[in-house]
Amino acid sequence: MTVKSTKKTTAASAETTEVWDVLVIGAGPAGYVAAIRCAQLGLKTACVDEWLNHQGKPSLGGTCLNVGCIPSKALLESSHLYRQANSELLQHGISSTSLAMDVSVMQSRKNQVVNELTQGINALFKANNITLIHGRAKIIASDTIEVSSRKTRKKTATLKADNIIIATGSSPVRLPQAQLENNCIVDSAGALELKEVPQRLGIIGGGAIGLELGSVWSRLGAKVVIFEAMQDFLPMADSKLAKLFKRSLKKSGLEIRLNARLISAEVKNNKVRLLYEDSSGKKQNEKQEDFDKLIVAVGRKPNSDRVFGEELGIEIDERHFILVNQQCQTSVPNIYAIGDVVRGPMLAHKASEEGVMVAETIAGHQAAVNYELIPSVIYTHPEFAWAGKTEEQCKVENINIKTGSFPMLASGRARAMAEAEGMVKIIADAETDRVLGVHIFSVQASELIAQAVLMMEMQATAEDMALTVFAHPTLSEAMHEAALSVHGRAIHIKN
Ligand code: FAD
Ligand code: NAI
């Protein structure tokens, strides 16, 4: 593709507009990665982003860096260290007499991590000659974007491009019966900013955010109750490991109430009064409970409103996700959409891989994302990670399977670390022996799952995994033993 740098003056706005090869809307993990890859491929690229941080300053990285993956992991790390120091170090012979938690220091460290990483994206944009434009973008024609100031709403620029990538992400779903209020009822962004540990913390939604942020505040001393509307806990995960996981969360202090339907949440005297229906028994009971804070974490919705008008013909589905094909192309051929704003799991790594795929496609290369092998991780302690199919999914798809598993209790390394909770489970096709799914509940599961994804990507069989040499003593050996156990050959457990 030829790189153009045409300067044009539009009569209507009498302003100078360049024609870009690619304009990216949104600088989250979908958009900033797409922009970098486009620039690497020699495409003249600009990125428009509207994010403002607490100081009212533009900040790149979208939800993930500003109020998502990164700040939540920073708080998970701090709170884990506190809990370890508080109750787990004694078994190693380590004791301290004056342990204290300063929430404001923890929050400052988290903010610093966020600032450094968001600044890092500015540096990457500069290094790759990507033009950054701050403001809210709206596509007004298939090759034209209008940018306006987020504060004044006034138009600030009109930009022209051969290709447009929509990477506008998602926002928390709001519940009419639990409106955000007075720092008492907060969404996930508010839950990352609490200035002190609440005594009693209620959470609506037992998904990834509820479990991770619930863990943070529970480790620091809050009594946490999670209200989940569904009957099953984490229905998308392997049911056996999900059961182990739920038991472990309970032991760690998270109370999870399934089948709990929120009726109302009201703030009075800085307390939240929750009215909910508990239908776990045969009878449906209306119950009331008071909390110091309530987090609403019931999923996220795509940011597809306000980005384009209907007249453009970009199609959306009934849940407002932009409709795209396998290559993330919308119904308008030169307009692509990636990340949380389109179908598939709302995960940063999925968003980034789509960004790379679209950049490559625009540059004329063949590119694809393997949607079957996107790993999921819940960063609790131990962590829960999985990739590929669950046993339940195989049943629905009529695939004959064999499984192997290995408890962390039998792992020498896990025992040496005093982290012997959990299990690795491998699902293989009964006929071909090909590994179809790997499910890990263990410390460092987020790191362990990468080797499983790689093996599945290379279409490894359980035997291939069993014939691979793993270093001893490592947590990875549990994967090896689980693969051996698919064929009844595990060494350190009775098959
Ligand atoms: P976003 O990150 O939402 O970025 C979209 C960007 O577009 C934003 O900067 C926004 O300001 C901008 N924008 C929107 N509209 C416009 C417009 N009209 N004009 C200009 N700019 C616009 N995922 C993981 O994989 N791992 C995790 O551990 C993880 N933890 C999370 C924890 C929390 C608390 C939350 C809330 C989410 C977490 N996620 C995690 C999900 C992850 O953050 C999202 O999947 C990811 O950020 C999606 O990337 P994106 O680029 O599609 O959208
Ligand atoms: P989620 O979809 O993971 O979980 C929301 C939960 O709320 C569901 O279990 C749902 O059944 C429940 N729910 C919905 N309405 C309810 C109601 N009225 N009352 C009670 N429960 C209700 O969404 P969550 O946790 O908000 O996270 C949003 C997105 O962010 C997810 O898609 C997730 O992929 C991503 N994320 C990823 C993380 C990770 O990868 N570790 C961490 C945090 C978020």
Can you lay out the helices and strands and say which pair or pack?
Elements: E1 7-9, E2 16-25, H1 31-40, E3 45-49, H2 62-67, H3 69-88, H4 103-127, E4 131-134, E5 136-141, E6 144-148, E7 155-166, E8 170-172, E9 185-186, H5 188-191, E10 200-204, H6 208-219, E11 223-227, H7 239-251, E12 254-257, E13 260-268, E14 271-278, E15 285-291, E16 293-296, E17 300-302, E18 335-337, H8 348-362, E19 376-378, E20 383-388, H9 391-396, E21 401-407, H10 412-416, E22 423-429, E23 435-442, H11 445-457, H12 462-466, H13 477-486
1,4-dihydronicotinamide adenine dinucleotide is lined by residues 175, 204-210, 212, 227-230, 262, 297-300, 345-347, 377-379.
Walkthrough of the structure:
There is one protein chain. By secondary structure, the chain is α/β, with parallel strands linked by helices. The protein is built from 13 helices and 23 strands. It folds into 3 domains: 19-63 and 109-171 and 301-372, FAD/NAD(P)-binding domain (3-Layer(bba) Sandwich), CATH 3.50.50; 185-298, FAD/NAD(P)-binding domain; 382-486, FAD/NAD-linked reductase, C-terminal dimerisation domain (Enolase-like, domain 1, 2-Layer Sandwich), CATH 3.30.390. Strands 1, 2, 3, 4, 5, 6, 7 and 18 form an 8-stranded mixed sheet that branches. Strands 9-16-10-11-12 form a 5-stranded parallel sheet. Helix 3 (69-88) packs parallel to helix 6. Flavin-adenine dinucleotide binds at residues 25-31, 48-51, 62-64, 68-69, 72, 136-137, 167-170, 188, 209, 303, 307, 339-340, 346-349, 351, 379.
